[in-house]
Amino acid sequence: MDKLILGIESSCDETAAAVSVNGRKILSNIVYSQIDEHKKYGGVVPEIASRRHCENILTTVREALNSAGAGLSDLDGIAVTYAPGLIGALLVGTSFAKGLSMAASLPLIPVHHIAGHIASNYIAHEDLEPPFLCLVASGGHTMIAKVTDYTHFEILGTTRDDAAGEAFDKCARVLGYPYPGGVHIDRAASRGDSTLYKLPTPHLSGNELDFSFSGLKTAVINLVHNAEQKGETIDGDSLAAAFQKTASDYLTEKAMTAAELTGAKKLALAGGVSANSGVRSALEKACAERNISLYMPPLSLCGDNGAMIACQGYYELMAGNTAGEDLNAIATLPLGS
Ligand code: KG4
Ligand code: ZN
C-alpha cells in the first residue's frame, strides 16, 4: 500500500508544504517565499519570518493537499521540520503539525532539516540508496555526512566558522547584490574571469574534513574595501568568479578527501548552495575522474521545500520515528544526534 506523507517546512524564510508517495514521488510541492520582504533588511528578520509563517501556513498546507488531490484521510502521517532553524519560525510549523495530527489522528513525524535536504536527492534519483556520502552546503550549515541508512547519519566534518552559503551571501553583499546573494554571485561569476584575483584557500589543522570559510570571505571583503579606499575600481564579476571557483574547488576537494578516506563510491550534494553551477561542475568533473557516482538535487529542490521533508518523513515513519505529544522545536541540533 502506498504511503502518503504531508511534509511541512518553516525553519527559515520559506513556508512550504508537500505531499509525497513512499518517500520518492511528489504529488504536490508548494513554497511561499518571504525573500522579497527580508531583502529590504539585508537578511532574514526572525520575527517577521515567524509572523509570515503564521499567516501563510494554513493556505500553504491546504494548497499542497488540494494540488495533490488528497484529503487528510488519505494521509499516513504528518512530517514537520522541528530542528534546526529560527526558533520562532520552527515553532509555527511544529505547532501547526501537532494540531493537525491530533485533529486527523495521524502520526506526527519529526524531521531534521538537513536530513530533509539530503532526502531531496531521493526524489530525482530512484537508484540512490544508503550508504552514501553527502556534501551539505546551505545558508546555515556546511558538512560532510555519511548517510549510513535512511535515518542514521554520521558527521565526518563540519564548518568551524561560516557556512558556505553565508560566505556566498556576505561576498554578494559587499559586491552590491541583495540577499540572498548566492544566486547573484553565480550569475556574476559566469561573466567574469576567475583568474584575475588570487584568493586564499583555507587551511586548517586537525580534522581534514572540517571546513573554514571566514578567511576566504574576509579576503573578498578586504579586497573590495581596500580598492574603495584607494579609489580603484573592482571587476566585480571577476571577483565573484574567483570566489566561486575557490569555494567550489574547496568544497570539492573536501568531498573527494572524504570519499578517499571512506572508500565511498556514491556522493550526494544537498542544501541551497547545491544550486551553484561552479560547485556542480567541479563535483561532476572530480567524480567522473574517480569513478564516483554523483547525485545532485534538481535546481527546483535545492532550496528549502516541503517535498524533502515529506520524503524524509516517509523513511522516519518506516523506522518508527514518530513524535510524542511533547514534541518541541529545537534551534540548534547536530544532524544524527
Ligand atoms: O538550504 P537553503 O535554502 O537554506 C538553509 O537551510 O540555509 O540555503 C540557502 C543558501 C543561501 O545562502 C543562498 O545564497 C544559497 O543557499 N544559494 C546559492 C545559490 N542558490 C542559493 N549559493 C550559491 N549559488 C547559488 N546558485
Ligand atoms: Zn535549508
Describe this structure in words.
The chain is α/β, with parallel strands linked by helices. It folds into 2 domains: 4-120 and 301-318, Nucleotidyltransferase, domain 5 (2-Layer Sandwich); 129-297, Nucleotidyltransferase, domain 5, CATH 3.30.420. Helices cover 45% and strands 19% of the residues. It is built from 10 helices and 10 strands. Strands 3-2-1-4-5 form a 5-stranded mixed β-sheet, with helices on both faces. Strand 1 and strand 2 form a beta hairpin. Helix 6 crosses helix 8. It starts with a strand and ends in a 19-residue tail after the last helix. The mean pLDDT is 97. The protein binds 5'-O-[(R)-(carboxyoxy)(hydroxy)phosphoryl]adenosine and zinc ion (ZN). 5'-O-[(R)-(carboxyoxy)(hydroxy)phosphoryl]adenosine binds next to helix 5 and helix 6.
Q: Which key phrases capture this entry?
A:
single chain, 337 residues, alpha/beta, Nucleotidyltransferase, domain 5, 2 domains, five-stranded mixed beta sheet, 10 helices, 10 strands, binds 5'-O-[(R)-(carboxyoxy)(hydroxy)phosphoryl]adenosine, binds zinc ion
